[in-house]
Amino acid sequence: MMHLAFLLLIIFTDGSSSDKVCSYQDVVDYLNLTAANSAFKMTRPVLDYKHPTVVQLDILLYAILAVIEKTQTFIPFVWVIMEWSNERISWDPDQFCGITQVSVPKDMLWKPDLFIYEMIQKDDSPQNPYMYVSYDGTVTFEEDMKVVSTCEMDVHKFPFDTQRCSISIGSAIHCIEEIRLLPFSNSSLATKFSRDVIKTQGEWEFLHLSVTRYNFTLDNRMWENLAYNFTMKRRPLLYVTNFMLPILFFLILDLASFFIADHRGEKLGFKVTVLLAISVLLLILNDILPSMSNKTPLIATYCIVIFALMLLSLLETILVTYLMEKDSASQEKLRLRDDKHDTVKIENTEEKRQTCCSCVCKASDDEKQDELLPLADEVNNSIQSLESNALLLILEQLKELQNTLNLLLGCRQEGGKSGHWAARINRAFFIFYVTTVSLFLSLIFTAWST
By the 8 A CB rule, do 106 and 129 touch? Predict the structure, then answer.
């Protein structure tokens, strides 16, 4: 009879347990997790203070929001996962219908006082209000963070640069005897997971995420930190198409200006216009690059050297124009002097002509008065004198015409000589200009590619 009663008790007990209903609140009540209970959030959750709390940490890159070279600021959006053990919490899942994990508000439990050393601005992203607690006391906390951190950037090869920015995490007051920091994933797994979850990169291409652990000593106490190093490469297409190629096009225009005639004013105005366009692009570059840098950026060297070459080309054009104007002034003075000399010659010729005419008239008067000579002799003498005077006048006019032609040919030869040496100067400077530009571009692009 007793055996039958015991068997019925077992059957009824099993049936009632199979119909048992459990909730997360039952677990919370069992653990006595309340907002007023300070035992779970005031002190480090260990039963023996000599036992350090091991915090496992993982940071995954979710997005690259901004990389600001001017202020040396790196702004990533990361996914932080922390896990540690709370020795004051445990329960048997079999007593609570197999519940192995509950979520509780994060203000009800102790959290490691971890912070980011490079962070310069308070996180304003939405906060996760809950954390997970497992039956064996393992606490898991996940949170998305917008980190505004400082980063020492090397812009020497801008815009073909690769930047490495670090996020260092450590405890504020707990030394290595109290808190140990361990990474969840190694560098290869962290890189793989980040590439899987990353959503946006902007102008940057994420390359690698490395995780290192290091210690430092302060006031005879040692702290343990984790450093996450983000390596990313800039996508330079935007800067090449909007900045570098226009400067190169302006340089080509300056080279083409050598084919414009020097005696025209358009060449000088054209070169000045191109130089002003380069100055505007240099102002844009000044807004991009940081004020202080360990090395001069190659793109600044690229712009300054091209600006200097174009300035030198402008000075060469001014010099050639000045020398040509000076030659033109000297030729004008020579022409005026020769014109004055020709005027004097013409006046002398007119005087000779008038003298001849007066002689002829005098001869005719003498004819009338001299009645003793025969009429035939008088006529012959007058005709011979007139013919000789006419021949002399024709000869003098031919000599004057010859001198005028010689003068014109001399002016043309001088003008040709001046144009010839101007062309030689332009040709020599053009060869020097093209050689310097080719050598400089090859050197600058080689430095960018290495």
Answer: yes
Give me Rg for the CA atoms of the chain. Answer: 51
List C-alpha distances in Å: 85 to 24, 51, 56, 111, 146.
20, 11, 10, 10, 26
Instruction: Give the DSSP H/E element, type plus range, for residue 172.
Output: none
User: pLDDT by residue (tens digit) across 128-177?
Assistant: 899 999 999 999 999 999 999 999 888 888 889 899 999 999 998 889 99
DSSP single-letter state for residue 243: I
- Cis peptide leading into 159, omega within 30 of 0? yes
pTM: 0.71
Residue whose entry in the numeric block shows the structure tokens 């570098």? 244
What CA–CA distance (Å, rounded) separates 284 from 306?
A: 16
- Whether pLDDT at 72 is above 50: yes
194 CB-contact burial (10 Å; exposed 0-12 / middle 13-18 / buried 19+): buried
Cα separation, 7 vs 3, whole angstroms: 6
Range scoring the smallest mean pLDDT among 192-196, 220-224, 411-415: 411-415
Q: CA angle, 45 as apex, 44 and 49 as ends, to 5°?
A: 65
What is the arrangement of strands in the sheet containing 162-171, beginning at the earlier edge strand? Answer: 114-116, 162-171, 221-234, 204-218
Q: Which amino acid is at 66?
A: A
Count CB-CB contacts under 10 A for residue 251.
20
The per-residue b/e assignment along 214-241, b for 16 or more CB within 10 angstroms, e otherwise, is: eeeeeeeeebbbbbbebebbbebeebee
Measure the CA–CA gap between 169 and 171, rounded to whole angstroms. 7
For tokens 């200006």, name the residue.
Answer: 257
Helix, strand, coil share (%) of the chain residues, nearest 5: 55, 20, 25
* Angle in degrees, CA 165, 289, 438, rounded to 5: 110
DSSP-derived letter for residue 118 is: T
- The tokens for 268 are 């000088």
Q: How far apart are CA 141 and CA 131, in angstroms?
A: 5
What is the rounded distance in angstroms from the CA atom of residue 325 to the CA atom of residue 106? 86
**Which candidate, 191, 189, 181, places its Cα nearest to that of 213?**
181
List the beta bridge partners of residue 85.
138
Locate the DSSP E strands across 6-95: 53-68, 73-85
